[in-house]
Design brief:
single chain; 2 helices; elongated
Length: 66
């Protein structure tokens, strides 16, 4: 449980750092609602965090390190 929490925490920091380099303004319409863009950006971040964390958990369990 604690390992999974720390893995989620570490991946969250890395994903936020990596997504900070994106310029997502080019992906949206010119007159798009800024709230929609923020919600999309937030959901995209959550999705990436979930996928990367589960990838590492599956990798660790298949290699039987822990």
């Amino acid at each position: 449980m604690t390992f999974k929490f720390f893995l989620y925490f570490a991946v969250t920091i890395v994903v936020i750092w990596a997504m900070d380099s994106l310029n997502i303004n080019g992906l949206f319409k010119k007159n798009a609602n800024p709230l929609q863009a923020k919600v999309f950006y937030f959901l995209l971040g959550l999705s990436i965090i979930y996928l990367v964390t589960n990838f590492f958990l599956d990798l660790i369990s298949s290699v039987s390190i822990l």
